[in-house]
Amino acid sequence: MEKPLIDVPTGPAPEDLVIEDLVLGEGEEAQPNDQVEVHYVGVDFETGQEFDSSWDRGQSINFPLNGLIQGWQEGIPGMKVGGRRKLVIPPEKAYGPANGAHPLGGRTLIFVIDLLKVGS
Q1: What class of enzyme is it (predicted)?
Q2: Coil, strand, or helix at residue 66?
Q3: Over 70: is that where the pLDDT of 120 sits?
Q4: What is the pLDDT of residues 105-119, one digit of tens each?
C-alpha cells in the first residue's frame, strides 16, 4: 500500500469516536491487548495539517495497543491484517483538553491506519 491521502472534512468535528473501514483486511484480527504493527498518518481535523506519519519516517511502528491513546485502543480492535481504517478521535479520546501538557490537546484528530501485523 501507499501512504494515504486524507480529505479534510467539512462541518463540525464529531463528539465521539468515528471508525470507518477504508479497506477490509483478510488476515488475523486485532484484539484489545495485542501487540500491533502499523503504518499511519495523523492529521488535525480542523486545519487538515499532517502532524505525524510513519510513512514519512520510512518505517512502520510496533507497540502494545493498551499503551496508546484511547481512540486507538477502541478503534483498532476488530481490524484485520491488511486492512486500512480511518479513525476520527475527539480530544477526550486523544490527548485531552487544550490546557493539558500535550501540544495536540484539545484537538480532534484523524488517523488513517494500516494494520500490518498482529502479535510480537
Answers
A1: isomerase
A2: helix
A3: no
A4: 999 999 999 999 998
Domains and CATH numbers, the chain: 18-109 (3.10.50.40)
Contacts of residues 64-70 at CB distance under 8 Å and 24 or more positions apart, as own/partner, are 64/33, 64/34, 64/35, 64/36, 65/30, 65/32, 65/33, 65/34, 65/35, 65/36, 66/32, 66/33, 69/93, 69/94, 69/95, 70/94
pTM of the model: 0.94
Phi, psi of 73 (to 5 degrees): -60, -35
State residue 43 phi and psi, 5-degree precision. -135, 145
| Cell reading at 85 | 481504517
Residue 61, Cβ neighbours under 10 Å: how many? 12
Digit-coded pLDDT (tens) for 44-70 = 999 999 999 999 999 999 999 999 999
